[in-house]
């Protein structure tokens, strides 16, 4: 599996911004960000395919931006206008192939350790 390391998490006030980064050990056709809050189910946040196709969760559309730098094997998530409900552990995920179903967690076999985002 691809090795993934996230960074950039922290604490911020509502309305603020944070940018998360993920460094991968090798290229992947599909990469995504997921998040999980205490006591809640893991949910998809944003996904990007190698052809550039992007999918966002409805809750973050217009506020978050996902991007990939293939030359450096990095993935980013720019988060603006943060809300308390965005508080969660954020995980980077990668797959050597893409599926028709967007943000399908079970399809991803490589996961990072997570980075905490707290909005108050």
What would you say this structure looks like, in words?
With 120 residues, the chain is mainly β. It is 0% helix and 48% strand. The chain has strands at residues 4-7, 10-12, 18-24, 30-36, 43-49, 54-56, 64-69, 74-79, 88-95, 110-111, 115-119. Strands 2, 4, 5, 6, 9, 10 and 11 form a 7-stranded mixed beta sheet that branches. Strands 1-3-8-7 form a 4-stranded antiparallel beta sheet, with no helix packed on it. Strand 5 and strand 6 form a beta hairpin.
A few lines on this structure:
With 120 residues, the chain is an all-beta fold. It is built from no helices and eleven strands. The protein has strands at residues 4-7, 10-12, 18-24, 30-36, 43-49, 54-56, 64-69, 74-79, 88-95, 110-111, 115-119.
């Amino acid at each position: 599996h691809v090795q993934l390391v996230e960074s950039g998490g922290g604490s911020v006030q509502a309305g603020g911004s944070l940018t998360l980064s993920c460094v991968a050990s090798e290229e992947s056709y599909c990469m995504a960000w997921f998040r999980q809050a205490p006591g809640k189910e893991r949910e998809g946040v944003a996904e990007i395919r190698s052809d550039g196709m992007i999918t966002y969760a409805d809750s973050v559309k217009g506020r978050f931006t996902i991007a990939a730098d293939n030359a450096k094997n990095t993935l980013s998530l720019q988060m603006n206008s943060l809300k308390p409900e965005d508080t969660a552990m954020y995980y980077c995920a990668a797959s050597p192939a893409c599926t028709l179903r967007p943000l399908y967690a079970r399809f991803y076999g490589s996961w990072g350790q997570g980075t905490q985002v707290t909005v108050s």
